[in-house]
Amino acid sequence: MKTLPVIIDCDPGIDDAIALLSAFVAPKLKILGICTVCGNQPLTNTLRNALQITELGYRVDIPVFAGCHQPMLRAPIHGQFHGENGLGNTAFPAPKKQPESQHAVNFLTDSCEQAIADNQPLTLCVLGPLTNLATALRIKPHIAAGISRVVLMGGAYREAGNRTMTSEFNMLADPHAAHIVFSSPLHITVLPLDATHQVILTPEHVAKFVKVSGRISAQLGELMAFWDRNDVRRYGSRGGPLHDPLVIAYVLAPELFGTEKARVFIEHNSELCMGQTVADWYGKSGETPNVDIVTRVDANKVFALFYELLSRYAGK
Ligand code: BDR
Ligand code: CA
Questions:
Q1: What is the model's pLDDT at position 11?
Q2: Which residue in 52, 75, 299, 311 is deepest, having the highest Cβ count within 10 Å?
Q3: Is 14's pLDDT higher than 90?
Q4: What is the pLDDT of residue 315?
Q5: CA triplet 136, 137, 141: central angle to 5 degrees?
Q6: What is the per-residue pLDDT for 133?
Q7: Pairing, β 240-241 against β 200-201
Q8: Nearest C-alpha neighbor of 35 from the set 127, 141, 163
Q9: Could you tell me which residue ranges the Inosine/uridine-preferring nucleoside hydrolase domain spans (predicted)?
């Protein structure tokens, strides 16, 4: 099978961890490296968590890099629903695996330059604030040619925000980085709250994941159980949205998603609307549409995909 070269940039994070565990067992993906960033937790914790998840998922062969400690201009904010350690307070042993000595941003720029030289552009999956990618683009703008597509979780279009009235966490955490990325020539697909709120992980789903996921089932069950927001008013049921895993699902099976194309602007001046993702649905700006925004998801088929992937741990 021809594999797809990908880099995963993340801030684990419970849903980042579920995304990583799913990606680790997808035969279609060749994961070149995992970059970490300040986001749901400070960088030291997101880095440690990424190392722990590679150990849990039997993928210590994948290099893990530490990225940016801080957003570009604003003070860090951290996630609210990930527990004290960022992994739902699930206890993992201190990782034996060491991070690479190279900085994540240098790994990104080197990998993109290599992809250009080999004429084999890579896919970049971003599950957290866009600080690493924006910094890479500031240092070496030509690397955009080495990225076939950025698939990222972030933003809220027709939906309201989840961290403020207008803004989703990943965009609010580093709106200046988001502004740089969305103004670049990159091909971008976004999984915003409009999409992720269509895929709610209920206690019934969790029970099934625990049943199928073999040697990781205890830890996966704990991570998933912690993710239950119990916010029926917002989500229409018990459970929590499968935000970051949808990036992996999109890369593996884009036919399960429907997109609409629009120019996207990121608010980075107004405190009231800081981090808001503004889509020019009706061509008011005169700018060319530059982002594929996922607005529809076949949730049942996405769950079937994740059951199939995570059941691969039963054989490990
Ligand atoms: C995003 O924010 C984080 O807390 C999650 O990991 C996800 O990437 C959802 O708004
Ligand atoms: Ca995340």
A1: 98
A2: 52
A3: yes
A4: 74
A5: 125
A6: 98
A7: antiparallel
A8: 127
A9: 6-303
User: Could you identify the atom of ligand 1 that is nearest to the CA of residue 80?
Assistant: 4
| Residue 82 designated active-site | no
- Residue 292 in contact with ligand 1 by CB distance below 6 A: no
Tell me what pLDDT residue 316 has: 63
User: Among 8, 10, 11, which is best to mutate for testing ligand 1, by the most ligand atoms less than 8 A from CB?
Assistant: 11
Q: Tokens standing for 16?
A: 């980042």
What is residue 255's DSSP assignment?
A: G
Question: Looking at residues 107-135, what average pLDDT do you find?
Answer: 98
Alpha-carbon distance values, 166 to 69, 78, 172, 234, 298 (Å): 25, 17, 9, 15, 26
User: What does the pLDDT look like over 221-235, one tens digit per residue?
Assistant: 999 999 987 778 888
Pairing of strands 257-266, 240-241: unpaired
Q: How far is CA 185 from CA 105, 200, 239, 247, in A?
A: 18, 33, 37, 20
The label of the residue with tokens 């054989």 reads 315
CA distances from 133 to 68, 115, 174, 179, 221 (A): 10, 16, 11, 11, 32
Q: What is the rounded CA–CA span in Å between residue 300 and residue 53?
A: 26
Of the chain, the percentage scoring pLDDT greater than 90 comes to: 95
Scored b (16 or more CB within 10 A) or e, 170-193 reads bbbbbbbbbbbbbebebbbbbbbb
- How far, in Å, CA of 140 to CA of 151, rounded? 20
Domains assigned to the chain: 4-193+241-296 (3.90.245.10)
CA 308/CA 106 separation, integer angstroms: 35
